[in-house]
Amino acid sequence: RDEPRPRSGVLRARQFIMKDSYSLDYDQAGLDHSYELHKEAYKKIFDRSGIKYFIVGASSGLMGGSGSQEFMAESDVGEDTIVLCDHCRYAVNLEIATSDLTELVDEPTRLEEVSTPNVRTIEEVSEFLNVPASRFIKSLVYIVDDEPILILIRGDHELNESKMQVRFGAKFRPAAEDEIEKIMDGTHTGFIGPVGLKGMAIYVDKTVVNQKGFISGANKDHFHLKGIDLKRDISIREIIDVSTVKAGEKCPECGHPLRIVNAIEIGHIFKLGTKYSEAMNATVLNPGGEKVPIIMGSYGIGVERILATHIEQNSDDKGIVWSKALAPYFVHIIPINVKNESVLEQAEAVYDYCNQEKISALIDDRNVGPGFKLKDADLLGMPLQIIVGEKNLKNNRLEFKIRRLQKSFLVDVNHYKEELKGTLQKIE
């Protein structure tokens, strides 16, 4: 992939491994069934991997189709942002998230032009007039299919371009400064507004549609208008949802506060529908003998991302803590002193037994100090460490250490085989 800024280890790399699959059905019911089968299979994979994840509603983006969901794992290093409600489990990618806003108290609606010399941004005008940003309307000029439109959102919110893409398609862009001046007959950015505007479609975000007494540009440099009532003062083409949700706003499902977190995308499933089959004229005969376009689904897992996410969620100040499902080796055998013949022989005997029983094992037979070996064992994080030391071996003992619990116990050397199998069965 032509990734412009590779970062975060294997999370955002130019080369990566994907598990991809596609479903081909002849009706919507078949697609729904295939989609649910993949969804359940992915849940089993991530559950078995020991990953804590959310299934979130997502934008289909360039893939298109009628809907999609992402499997997201909360992480500070995640490159995606998701909106969560801890009360009702509402979980959606920030790209398409919505919220219920606490309505503002209506302000007076007598239109009044006020002088605002050399203050253009919401922050500057807010400070100049001593009015909170939530009382302002941002007037944003966009070009859609080569025609200018005006988007209105609340001053304390940001435009969500993913929502814009869903509403207007791929052919939209913000107007350039010189384009805005030409469209607005010389009025500069920062002073444009919807009142009195002619010849341009006006789309109003839901954040401002029901309140009165807003402030916006007066379509005259260095002036703003107070007391705007959108339903009274302008002709609205359409009420839309194109603003970005903010933390603390009310959940649209239950009304409790929303929180926003970073997350790692570990899987994505799409209902593509007939977008690609119609373009390729790919058809199939349905049970009734009718030729119909193939209805497609697309499903993908980022294989390395599962490992990266597991490490992010399963580590401590000493290193990685692998689950048994993903661990490179189940057992890490540590002979404390390889120069001691008895110690090395016993360690190798344990290693040979593990291989014989198909128990994946790693043996550290380096000639280095015990501190290095024990520290590296914790850093690598295999589920079970078996430590073979001179002192314990003289007493016919081996030390077993469960990495996740940082718990050690001694095992009779004559019964270590049974203990090894029993301990591994208990480790998750």
User: What shape does the CA trace take?
Assistant: elongated
Q: What proportion of the residues form beta strands (DSSP E)? A: 25-35%
Calculate the mean pLDDT score and round it. Answer: 92
Structure classification: alpha+beta
State the CATH architecture of the largest domain: 2-Layer Sandwich
What count of structural domains? 3
What's the short version?
The chain is of the alpha+beta class and 428 residues long. The chain has helices at 28-48, 122-129, 161-168, 177-183, 230-233, 275-279, 303-313, 341-356, 370-380, 390-394, 416-426; strands at 18-25, 54-58, 67-74, 80-84, 91-93, 112-115, 137-144, 147-154, 172-174, 201-205, 214-217, 223-228, 238-240, 259-273, 283-285, 291-293, 295-302, 315-316, 319-320, 331-335, 361-363, 384-388, 397-402, 407-412. Helix content is 25%, strand content 30%.
Walk me through what this model shows.
This protein is an alpha+beta fold and 428 residues long. The chain has 3 domains: 18-98 and 248-312, BirA Bifunctional Protein, domain 2, CATH 3.30.930.10; 112-240, YbaK protein, CATH 3.90.960.10; 331-426, 3-Layer(aba) Sandwich (Rossmann fold). It has helices at residues 28-48, 122-129, 161-168, 177-183, 230-233, 275-279, 303-313, 341-356, 370-380, 390-394, 416-426, and strands at 18-25, 54-58, 67-74, 80-84, 91-93, 112-115, 137-144, 147-154, 172-174, 201-205, 214-217, 223-228, 238-240, 259-273, 283-285, 291-293, 295-302, 315-316, 319-320, 331-335, 361-363, 384-388, 397-402, 407-412. The two termini are 35 Å apart.
